[in-house]
């Protein structure tokens, strides 16, 4: 009897031992490998994700840096420089297309005095500039004496085509749109002055350098190009400050007017605003004797006398926008740089109400000063002006605000 009990206990013990053994074996040979496998898969995934992130980061970094093109690549993407978009002071611009399908504008620089290394340094600086109101530099070429800059293509061309157009193009811009373009342009210039980690003075703000994308969003073009023409010779450090007659600030012509600074671009922007309202170049030399010959002067007197601006078919609201643009423009073209607002202030003025704006002092030289400036300017056969390097040494983005 006792032996049977022991036998049963042993059998039960053996039964549980078998179950325990089976569980251990299953865990060891089935679950453990599965867990280890899952762990390894998970680990691999995490590593791959990290690598992907790094790749993505590097890719992004790369796509933020301008691509270097060989000259033959440029010939291929522009179909042997077939479609010329225009010609400016730096060289010719051609339309092209990358194999990704993106349209580009290739600016072939003529007579750049930079050596290859300096050129690439400068390009990498301006290539890091990214803003919705600034034209993006997508690449460059530096091969022997061939230098080129490759920009994103702006399908609606430059602002001058619209504001100086005799046809109906200008009327296609409502006054609200003109105001929006002015504000966008101000944002772009302000970004160049202070929004990015380097302070870039443009020196050539004018309607031709405000390009319009497919939604007519304005983008500032050709920033940083003044730097590409630094040395005239090895003995005297002479810089070429570029600018275009009619937009160039007085201090760029004579240092007696003040130091060159961001305010020099503010001056050009003011001229641009006034041209947007006037729909023509500010100075019409042929009409020297007419009171309207110099639009800023004419418009100043009209506003001071409380008269309208003789704009055709404008509503009261549109007239207010036009007057606001004029008053801001007149502030920007003050002779003394310190009297001009900073670009941030200009943006505030554009965004604010006309009721908050005061009329600036008359922003002109006495007639003798004006004539002497005109004489200096007309002495230069080209539309660009050259100035001595000593002026630039005082470049600063920190002039006092109005
Ligand atoms: N990224 C671009 N997309 C489309 N058109 C462009 C682009 N860049 C320049 N253009 C066009 O090419 C023409 C020549 O431009 P370019 O900048 O060489 O001359 P500019 O602006 O008249 O003078 P500057 O040399 O003083 O800038 C302009 O009519 C402009 O509309
Ligand atoms: Mg240009």
Textual characterization of the structure:
It is elongated and about 135 Å long. It is α+β, with helices and mostly antiparallel strands. It has helices at residues 2-64, 71-77, 116-127, 160-163, 175-195, 250-253, 262-278, 295-304, 316-332, 343-351, 367-378, 389-392; strands at 67-69, 84-87, 91-97, 103-109, 137-143, 146-152, 210-212, 218-220. The relative contact order is 0.09. The chain has a six-stranded mixed sheet. A two-stranded antiparallel ribbon has the order 7-8. 45% of the residues lie in helices and 10% in strands. The chain folds into two domains: 67-152, Phosphorylase Kinase, domain 1; 160-396, Orthogonal Bundle (Transferase(Phosphotransferase), domain 1). The protein contains twelve helices and eight strands. The termini are far apart. It binds adenosine-5'-triphosphate (ATP) and magnesium ion. The site of magnesium ion has 5 residues, from loops.
Describe, in short, the structure shown.
By secondary structure, this protein is α+β, with helices and mostly antiparallel strands. It is built from twelve helices and eight strands.
Query: Which structural class is indicated by helix and strand composition?
Result: alpha+beta
Q: List the uncertain runs.
A: 230-240, 375-396, 398-402
Distance between the termini: 115 Å
What is the domain total for the residues?
2
- Beta strand %: 5-15%
The named CATH superfamily of the largest domain: Transferase(Phosphotransferase) domain 1
Mean pLDDT: 81
What's the CATH class of the largest domain, please?
Mainly Alpha
Bound molecules: adenosine-5'-triphosphate, magnesium ion
Number of helices: 12
CATH topology of the largest domain: Transferase(Phosphotransferase), domain 1
